[in-house]
Amino acid sequence: MRGFLFVKNLFNKKIPPSCEYCKIGKQITEDIILCVKYGVTTKNNFCKKFRYNPLKRIPKKQNLSLNFDEKDFII
User: Fold this and answer.
1) What are phi and psi of 68, to 5 degrees?
2) Strand duo 25-27 + 32-35: pairing
3) How many Å apart are CA 44 and CA 33, to the nearest integer?
4) 8 A C-beta contact, residue 29 and residue 42
5) Using the 8-state DSSP alphabet, how is residue 34 labeled?
6) Strand order of the sheet with strand 39-42?
7) Taking a C-beta distance cutoff of 8 angstroms, is the pair 28, 39 a contact?
8) Residue range 7-30, pLDDT digits in tens
9) Residue 25 gets which letter from DSSP?
10) pTM: predicted TM-score of the whole model, two decimal places
């Protein structure tokens, strides 16, 4: 039971819904999604049948600064 609670907390519940990462949508092109329930739609749409699929979502890249000083590497 503990493992289930850990996995449940891994994903942020405040992710805005989008057909781009819905379980029932299939991506045809970069902007067009084929929905099982509603047909052809854009990736920014969503409906009441939205089911989040974390494997379809591609996280945005974080900007890393590459400006380091010698002080950053001193222990």
Assistant:
1) -110, 150
2) antiparallel
3) 9
4) no
5) E
6) 25-27, 32-35, 39-42
7) no
8) 555 566 778 888 888 899 899 998
9) E
10) 0.57
In terms of residue numbers, what domain contains 42?
12-47
Is the residue at 4 inside a domain? no
Residue 22 lies in a domain: yes
Domain presence at residue 6: no
| Cβ-contact 22, 16 below 8 angstroms | no
Q: Count structural domains, the chain.
A: 1
Tokens encoding 75: 């222990």
**Partner residues linked to 40 by β-bridges:** 34
d(CA 8, CA 18): 20
Structure token digits, residue 4: 């289930």
The answer to whether position 16 is within a domain reads yes
